[in-house]
Amino acid sequence: MAVIVTTTISIEGRPITEYMGIIAGEVILGVNVFKDIAAGFRNIVGGRSGKYEEELRKGRDGAISEMIERAGELGADAVVGVKVDYETVGGQMLMITASGTAVKLG
After folding, report:
1. Checking DSSP bridges between strand 93-105 and strand 78-89, what pairing results, if any?
2. 34-43 pLDDT, tens digit each
3. 5, β-bridge pairs
4. Which of 100, 105, 104 is nearest to 22 (CA)?
5. How remote is the C-alpha of 64 from its chain's centroid?
6. CA nearest 84: which of 105, 71, 106, 67?
7. Helix or strand or coil: residue 36?
């Protein structure tokens, strides 16, 4: 059975029977110099930076996947209250963290 992941604190029709603790998945992305230059040009002329958006999506998906893997290792049925955070590390890297509460459902 797949682990249910939601930003809400409950799952309609499925009572939470056990709280298993807070879990997280983390991904750190290095910043590529060539992408920085391309993004800089894009910012000058306006518009969106497709490369950055793609990297952010990959990072977010990776952090969520890692969190789901940890939930599965605990035997959780779901992760509730999921939050995704973005933070710079050392000025040249981006850390993406997905966290939530692993639970058993009735």
Report:
1. antiparallel
2. 466 566 555 5
3. 79
4. 100
5. 4
6. 67
7. helix
Which residue, 29, 19, 36, is CA-closest to 59? 29
What lies within 8 Å, CB to CB, of 2 at 6+ separation is: none
In three state form, how does the secondary structure of the chain look?
CCCEECCCCCECCECEEEEEEEEEEEEEEECCHHHHHHHHHHHHHCCCCHHHHHHHHHHHHHHHHHHHHHHHHHCCCEEEEEEEEEEEECCCEEEEEEEEEEEEEC
Sheet with 78-89, side-by-side order of all strands: 4-5, 78-89, 93-105, 16-30
Identity (one letter) of the amino acid at 42? Answer: R
Residue 105's Cβ-side half-sphere holds a number of Cα atoms within 13 Å equal to: 18
β-pairing verdict for 4-5 and 78-89 = parallel
Q: How confident is the model at residue 33 (pLDDT cuts 50, 70, 90)?
A: very low
The pTM for the full model equals 0.82
